[in-house]
């Protein structure tokens, strides 16, 4: 008897029968007086889910708009406009200030026209004075006197949600600080949001529920509702609202949406509004009675069907699937020598056959994949190296040089750490190349590259710019230090080329140097100055170093 009870098939049958009987027994033990409690409990859960969905939608809508306002607070027109106005402290710049305010107002109007949820935008200066607005009479007249840490990151609600008669909609205002490029508080931007647009999201949420949704302001006045016929003049019963707030549960009351409703209050997290969700009580009770009567009839039929299905599943599916699961687990653990005997001709037998074929294919492919993977890794490493280095000198190529310059410029702007760019040219290389041949010319270039690498630090970069031109990027280096490094490069190259076994020759270099400037925006800015410096070095007789950022006197 025990082996039968402990078999998988028996457990499935017992579980299926018990799982079917438990709801029936539970419903049979409930009395008629408990129906109302069951209805309220079920509806409360549904109302909580509905209110929670509305709250999430409201928070998401609020987050989307706050992100937009935060982006506006960091936009160039707003920051630059407030910066300009802050500098205009006397009457001589009055026209400039008015023009700046006009430009900012036009910008705010243009932005407002593109944002459906925004009714108006207003900008304040650091003295909390309005300097520009998309509206002739702004809703927000003054920015906060002090900003807390939370206000600097999340903003603050300047005007709580209310019914706005001017725009004939529910609205509220959010205000954000405006920081200068050096993170100084220079003003604020306020946006009045159209909460009435959120009714569309209420209607979308309403499609998946039988309840109605109403948003109330802090004085329990209606802001908007998913139900038709309810406007901002409607007033819910204050007694029922107080009861719902105290009990924090749903109660039956004279509803806004239905004559008799079950309602629940939910306080929103980000927006100071109260969410009132309601369901029609009469419809809930009628559907529950009908469902209960049909449920008892359905359970008897369901028990028979579930028992038969459980017996079939336990015999035909569970056992062979257990074998397959065990075999698959072995493959996952790395054992590819698993083989399952095929004892059946049905779909499970076919699945077993395919499983055995799969293990054979896995064994055959495993070795191939490992070999291909190793070869691919080697090729990828080689390709990566070739993509950033020069084939002759093994220095960085021109593309990699541009990438390094972009990174150094960004670092310079963040940390203000100066770096220098050296443009190096082999003097009279074309003549040397024509006289001694390209092979010797290539050896000279390789020797120059080797000497260049020996003359710079490990934190510096060297690249072949093209032909006989090289470049070196000296990180965290000023002009005077760069000149010393350049002289060391000249000496090292001269000594190395003089020591060539086949064609010892005196090689000289012309080197142009430039230091990073705050107005540099692209690598081309530095390269252009370095090229000017190189040209000046050649102009002054070659075999010398010239820096555009240092005053020179000819020797």
Describe this structure in words.
By secondary structure, the chain is α+β, with helices and mostly antiparallel strands. The protein contains 15 helices and 15 strands. The strands form three sheets. The protein has a five-stranded antiparallel sheet with strand order 2-1-5-4-3. The protein has a five-stranded antiparallel sheet with strand order 7-6-10-9-8. The chain folds into four domains: 66 residues, no CATH class; 260 residues, PAS domain (Beta-Lactamase), CATH 3.30.450; 44 residues; 150 residues, Reverse transcriptase/Diguanylate cyclase domain (Alpha-Beta Plaits). The chain is flat, with a radius of gyration of 40 Å. One of its GO terms (biological process) is signal transduction. One of its GO terms (molecular function) is diguanylate cyclase activity. Keywords: Cell membrane, Membrane, Transmembrane, Transmembrane helix.
Features:
single chain, 555 residues, alpha+beta, Beta-Lactamase, 4 domains, 5-stranded antiparallel sheet, 54% helix, flat
